[in-house]
Design goal:
Length: 201
């Protein structure tokens, strides 16, 4: 994606935290000559070789996976908070804009075995059930129920490139106090998150 130098974030530890906190992303690849996108959890993990990967799965009914092996590279998009920025908050006349945080991850995809998919499912469920009032575990489910996992294709994406854009009014530092004040005054939770990100910039 297009990233002006002042909006690029190269802090890998911060970017990884962002991906883990916003792991419901978009997998983009080619299918029949057109871009195809699927919205799924993409979990940042370390594989057996010690490399960083994104692990995920999609339904076998989704035709996107049929061309995974032909695709040299796939794109995963992670979106964070975003907010409209009114130019009425500026000291000088200017057009309005939009502040946001987004990360693009490129990588090479490899389909997982059935055993690897099951292990991935256990990790995924355990992670998201950790804060449930009544957490469930795949260990407690019947073989009949777990047969549904045969209906998915699991895969890992070995990361080849990460691009992180933090568009946070970096070119308007003189207006930051007013922009942050206005964002915090809104009832929009995402606007408040952008204000927080601007404070930490």
């Amino acid at each position: 994606m297009f990233i002006p130098a002042h909006q690029r974030n190269d802090n890998l530890s911060e970017i990884k935290e962002f991906i883990m906190a916003n792991s419901f992303g978009v997998l983009v690849s080619q299918y029949q000559g057109k871009p195809w996108a699927t919205h799924i959890p993409l979990e940042l993990e370390i594989n057996k070789e010690g490399k960083e990967v994104l692990t995920a799965h999609i339904a076998k009914a989704n035709p996107q996976w049929h061309e995974f092996e032909q695709n040299e590279e796939v794109l995963c998009i992670f979106n964070g908070p975003h907010s409209y920025i009114s130019s009425s908050w500026y000291k000088e006349e200017e057009v309005p804009t939009w502040n946001y945080i987004a990360v693009h991850v490129y990588g090479k995809l490899k389909i997982l075995s059935e055993e690897e998919v099951m292990a991935h499912m256990h990790r995924l469920v355990d992670k998201y059930e950790a804060n449930s009032k009544n957490p469930i575990s795949l260990n407690d489910m019947s073989p009949q129920t777990l047969k549904q996992i045969k209906g998915v294709v699991g895969f890992q994406i070995e990361i080849t490139d990460i691009q992180a854009k933090y568009k946070l009014s970096q070119n308007r530092e003189q207006d930051h106090p007013k922009i942050i004040e206005e964002l915090e005054d809104t009832k929009n939770p995402m606007s408040k998150e952008i204000a927080k990100a601007m404070k930490n910039e």
